[in-house]
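Anyone have tokens for Reverse transcriptase zinc-binding domain-containing protein? Sequence:
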Amino acid sequence: MKLTWTDLWWLESFRISFLLQTVYNTLTTPTNLHRKGLSEDQQCRLCGERSTLAHILAEYRVALSQGRYKWHHNRVLTTLAHTWE
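Reply: yep, here.
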């Protein structure tokens, strides 16, 4: 899907904010909080790896190693959908 300026014009401000924060990796993740000095812990609570945006959205190795990539993907999308509603 190609995003146009017209599409952006009609988006609600919090959705534009989320989109821009995702693109520029400024969403509130444990790693970003640690980088800003707001948290001492940047590890994923489930697997212990650095909890970056990429890790949260697509690189969660525990789910991948257990063959649950689709499950993890759907959980992320469900969480995002509930946030946007």
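The two ends are 21 Å apart (CA to CA).
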